[in-house]
Each structure stands twice: as C-alpha cells, then as structure tokens.
Design a protein that fits this description.
It holds the Pfam family DUF6461. The chain has 255 residues and is an alpha+beta fold. It has ten helices and ten strands. The protein has two domains: 183 residues, no CATH class; 44 residues, no CATH class. Strands 1, 2, 3, 4, 5, 6, 7, 8, 9 and 10 form a ten-stranded antiparallel β-sheet that branches. The longest helix has 18 residues. The termini are far apart.
Length: 255
Amino acid sequence: MTREETGVRGSERLWHLVRSYGMGEWFMAAWVEGLEVWEAARRLGASVADVDDGVVCAWTDAVRGRPADGDAGIVWAGPLTAGWTQIIQVRGADCETGLRELSYGGRALLVSWGLNGPRDLEYAVDGEYVTGLSVTVPGERWGSDPHALDSYAQGLRFDLSDSGWRSDPELPPGWLEYCAWEEARLENGEDHGEEDMPGEWQDLVALACNGYHPPMATCLTSALALVGRVTGREIDRAWMDQAHTRYLIRGASVR
C-alpha cells in the first residue's frame, strides 16, 4: 500500500485512489468490452485523423490541455484486461453521451460524479441501456433489466444516508471535530483564518476541498468496485501509472 492509501478507510479506498490523481471532485470513466482502444475512440466521435494522431502519454501529460485543442473532448484510454478497455474522460462528457455506441457488440459501463454529486452507474449491452443503478440510494434500479448487476453488487454499500461511518475507527483522525468546527463557522457567518484552525487539520481541509465526505466516498468506491467485478480488474495505481493513449474528440460520434 502506498503512502497515499495508508490510513484511509477500506470502504473508501478507490475514491482516495482517483483523488490522488486529481479526480476527487470530478470523475468520468467508461469501460467497454471487446473493442480495440482506437475503435472505442472512434465510437466516441474521434475523427480518423484524431484516432491516427492519438498520443501515447502518461497521466500527467494527458491532463495538460493544449491551446490547439479548443473545446474538444479529451479521453485517455488503454487496455484494462484481455477483454476490456478503460477510458478516463479528461475533458468533456463523451463517455456519457457515447455509452450506447461503445456497447454495440458487447457491454459498456459508466461511472461519473461532479460537484453536484454522483450520477447513476449505467450499464449498456449491445446498444441498449440495460440497467441504471443509483450509487447512493439502496436498491434503486431501472432499465430493461434493472437487476442485471445485482450479483456484482453483493456486499457493496450504496447508501448515502448510512451514518455508521461516524463510529468507524478508520475515520481520519479529527474528521468529526473538523466538520463540527466548520459547520459552526458557517452557521455563524464567521470567516476564520488558518491561524484559528489547529495545524493538524490541514490535511482534512485538503480532503474536504477535494470533495471528501465519508459516506459519499464509500458509495463511489462501491461503484468502482462493482465495475471491477464485471471487468475482472479494478482501476488501480498500476494502470494509472502506465502510458495510455490520449485522444481528442472534436465532433459528433459516428452512428
């Protein structure tokens, strides 16, 4: 276990992983079965020229937008297992709008969240939306086969209202005290400076600024764990630290 993962709650481990790569507040990724990486990019809307010009690079280079990119979407994609490709959306929402296209001839999944919270986990098979799964409300499902993913969800926690985290010994030390202090500050309209806050809370402030909230981090980790059960491999540091291909998505997807 790396330094970044040391001391985090086990139920939050995958959220902390993606946070360490700058995706705590905003994340979007798709997983597609049976497609070469270049074909997945094409189905998302990359032109032939952009597919041919895909740049193999590390994550740190993938997130550096170039002035010439304009408003193009950016994805970073590579093989995850022998049968699945993992696609991280760097900019735009192409994975969300192109999920059905990605699933033709196989399966595709989508997990995403933003400043307004998580979106539903989506599952498509051969061009059809099969399952929508709420990652924060227990048992909330819909689609042509709402329970298609239930066998993969066993033991995972999709309940934002669960308050059991408050007594979890793995909770970051001082988190409850920090939250109470911050809530009181906001209620009183006070504008405390850093000098009014214990120095040991600096790491907690950084977590909060990255969207950390224990039950939410658990729900999002559960969503990523479910995907890992379907694909046979969770998103992990080994994959994120490898070079993959960065594609520009300039136009509408090829239908």
